[in-house]
Amino acid sequence: MEGLSPDLEVVQQDSGTVEMLPVRHVDVAWTMWVGLAAAFAIFFAVLEWLPLGSQLDMHQRATLAVTLWACTIWITGALPKAISGLSIPVLLYVSGATSKSVAFAGFTSNTSLLVIGSFLIASALNARHLDRRIALTIMSWAKPKISSFLKTYILAQTATAVIIPAIVARAAIFLPIVQGTNALLEPGEKGQRARQAMTMSAVGFAAVFAGPLFLTGSMPNVIVAHQLNHQAGAHIYWFQWFWLNLPLAGLIPIMYFWTLRHFKIQDVGLRHGPETITTERAKLGPLNLTDKLSLGVVALAVVLWATGHWTHLSTGLVAVGAACLLFLPGLLSGYWQRIERHMMWGVWLLLGGAVCMSNAFTVTKTNVWLSHQLQHFFPTADWLVLFILAIVTMQILRIGIVSNVGSIALFTPIIVTLAMTLHLNPVSFSMGVLNVDSYALLIPLEIEACLVAYASGEFTFGEFFRAGAPLTAIAILYMVVVMIPWWALIGYPIWQP
Question: What transmembrane ranges does the database entry give (predicted)?
Fold first, then answer.
């Protein structure tokens, strides 16, 4: 399937399961060699020729070189995404950007543990066909049209955003469920468009658009609130966050109707009628003890995620712990070989490398250097011009950072400091610029939830860009037309410090 890593392809079986199979060998395109050469040319050019100064030291320069190398590799597709992720900490270490322990720390970070644990949970659901069971149950509530199923999944994603504090966790949970729905769609071009729409929107976009609404809806929200409270004394907690971002709920129906229009799936139906759904549910039979215990472990993980601010258990620890519990004797230990084949190992390697790069930005204080450059770059102009310029600049810079958490962790102190330097309201300016980061949908690598959807193999980078880029533009316009007036109305006018 187009757009996948050259070593594996994701194959959707009629049973609803997913198989990772080797793809046929193809000649390496000359463009891949050109991309690889360009990446290393940029890497060595920055490493050797970018002048050092009082603000830029050799560690920061090496970090910038690795970042530009990774961006070039991802854009040109010169290496498999998993190999590029694994190469990042190696380059960070050999270039002298950081020590070995810091260079590889991304693979033991909370984000990395959360992803690998969530992927194991999702694969476990798939191995026991629990994803298909849940999908058939949800489909039995909806009308036999893809638009009705899509609406149901979007609402479910929004509801779970209240209690699951990670969009990647929600995406990983919904991925096997949506794949179960996709297996029952009609064949042909219309069915292919519907599968793309369901995977892209119900797994990726829905998780992304629900995230900014609630403080617990996305880990970047907690980072932004903490930084605003620390730097600007904003006193933003759960209810204050919800009140500040309440109008963002209006973007969810916009995303839904855009998906229907873009993919032209309003009238796409099932390959089989409602009676077949009933038949398929009957074939699965009742839940046995193993199924119930497995669902109980998943439910326990959800509860611990929701109560993390009381239990002080990290989301990554909970995810890995729940995954380990699923493989106790008598549960899913006998399914390991099948689950291993379904695991998205490449996606995890890519994400781990991106987090390593984000860590290097912080440790080497490359983010501080970039903040100084941005302050000199921004002109003395009207607040609206500064606001839009900050958004566009951040969207360009954050393309090189896969992790939404890493991106927010990197840019939040820069943006808050920039707002105060430009004598603008740090709350409304920072939230406006940083919220758009949550809607960065130019390529699936920018947000982990979209990376999870991409791993299904249902769509390519180009197809994602055509569907996601307009939504990013709409989000920027929405911030200007809706959110800035709203923040001014409730006491945070962007033009007043």
Answer: 30-50, 62-83, 103-122, 197-215, 235-258, 293-311, 317-336, 343-363, 383-401, 408-427, 439-457, 469-495
User: Taking the complete model, does pTM exceed 0.85, yes or no?
Assistant: no
Higher pLDDT, 265 or 10: 265
| Whole-angstrom distance, CA of residue 222 vs CA of residue 455 | 27
> Per the domain annotation, does 74 fall within a domain?
no
Asked if the structure places residue 154 within a domain, the reply is yes
Query: In which domain, by residue range, is 283 found?
Result: 110-225+234-345
Residues 278-295 have a mean pLDDT of 78
With cut-offs at 50, 70 and 90, classify the pLDDT of residue 276.
low
